[in-house]
Amino acid sequence: MKRKLIAKIFSVIALSALLFFMINPSAKAAGLFGPPQTVSKEAGGLNTAIGYRYHEDTYKNGTYHTFRQNEIYSQAAYGAKNIWEIYARIGIADLKIFDVFSSVDASTVTDKKDFEENWKFFGTLGAKAFYPINSIFGIGAFIQGTYYFSDFTDNVSGTNGVTPFTAGLKVKNLWDVNCGVGLQVTIPRGIKLYAGPYIYYSEAKMSLASDIPDLEYWTGDVSVQNKSIVGGFAGVDIPLIKGFRLNVEGQYSDRFSAGAAVTYTY
Fold this sequence. Notes:
By secondary structure, the chain is mainly beta.
C-alpha cells in the first residue's frame, strides 16, 4: 500500500516538473545512458524516471559552433531477467548556439552574437542488453536515438552599412543516435558503478530566412554535424528508499555533459 502511494506521488512530481518547464520557458531543462543492467524486476516489469541533462557539443560545417542544451524528460522502461531493457522518453529542451550571428565583415553589425530558443519537445527510444560475468562484474551494450519534433528559431537584427535588417535563423530536423558498451561493477548496498566508450552522431539543418550580406553562410539549408563522434561516459546508480534509485552520469565527447535521474521500479 505504501509503495503504491509513493509511486503515485512520484508520478505527480514527474508530471508537475514537465508542466513547470512548459509553462515557464525561461527555466532550463535529453537523457542519460544509465547503467548497463536494467533496474526492473528479474521476472519482468516496468520502471519510470524523471531526469535532467546539461549537454554541450561542437557542430561543424566550414566553421565550428558550440551548442548548449538543458533537457528535462520523463521515461518509461520495461526490462526482465536483469539482462535487457527497452525504454522511451518524452521531454523538452532549450538550445543556445554561440557566435552564430557574428558578422564576417565590419560593415555588418548585429544586435547579438548568440542564438537562443527556449523549449521544444523531443522523443527518445532506446534499448540495452547486459551480460553478467558474475555477481559483481558485467558488461552491457546500448543504442538510443533522439529526435526533436519542432524547429528552434531565433531572430537577429542589425545594419548592413546604413541599411537595417531583421532575419530569422531556423534549426530544424535536429536528431542524434548513440551506441556504446559499458562495464559495470556492483558494490555493497547494491550501488552500481559503470563506465565505457560510445559512438555518437548528430545532425541538423540550419537556414537564414533572408539573404543578409556577411551572414550568408547560413543562406539556404546548411547541414551541420557534431565534430567528434567518439566519447566516453561514467556514472553511478544508487538505491534510495524502497523502489527508488538515483542515477548520476557524466559524458564527454568534444565537450562535457552531465545529468541525473530518479527512477522508480514497480
